[in-house]
Amino acid sequence: MSNPKIGIILGSASDAPHAQKIGATLRELGIPFEVTVASAHRTPEDAAHYAQNARPRGLEAIVAVAGLSAALPGAVAAQTTLPVIGVPVESGTLLGMDALLSTAMMPPGVPVASVGINGAANAALLAARIVSTHDSAVAEKLQSYADEKAAKVRSSRRDAQTFADLPMAPEEALS
Fold it and tell me: pTM higher than 0.70, yes or no?
């Protein structure tokens, strides 16, 4: 893929599994992306420069993944007017609650969209929805993606093994 539209910035290399999940979804939707590592605490200049250079480089949104105090999404959002999506990571003694609150509780003027703890897939979908506001091909792929997920849920209702001893509602109850 060329010319990334989404930037994924990780607070540490240990967050790479989340980048893999985000990347898998973006690849499925045909959205080019890139990944880097920059810590809000250990390499704050790198995080700031990445955010400041994102728009001129053609990025349309940034997904910032961080655990513990999760300062990275806010630090990135403070340096750009692009949409920033924070992915709080489960870690430490608070199991990600500190990261969730740090990501969600931003001061006025520094917005960060936050997904749930370990919500990499939803972060990718939110970034895709941002791109889809002006890219009809992505909008169509998102609709197909949603249709496939809905079909999977509908077909699960017919799984006789899972629901063997349960009285199931008739299909007409759902239409």
Answer: yes
In b/e form, how buried is each residue of 105-136, taking b as 16+ CB within 10 angstroms? Answer: ebeeeeebbbbebbbbebbbbbbbebbbeebe
42 is in an annotated binding site: yes
How confident is the model over 1-21, as pLDDT tens digits? Answer: 579 999 999 999 999 999 999
Residue corresponding to tokens 């990025």? 59
Is residue 49 within 8 A of residue 110, CB to CB? The reply is: no
Distances 64 to 1, 44, 149 between C-alpha atoms, Å: 21, 13, 26
pLDDT per residue as tens digits for the range 77-124: 999 999 999 999 999 899 999 999 999 999 999 999 999 999 999 999
Q: Tell me how far apart the alpha carbons of residues 111 and 84 are, in angstroms, rounded to a whole number.
A: 8
Q: What 3-state DSSP class applies to 117?
A: coil
* 159 in a known ligand binding site: no
CA distance 14 to 69: 15
Virtual torsion, Cα 122, 124, 125, 130, nearest 10 deg:
130
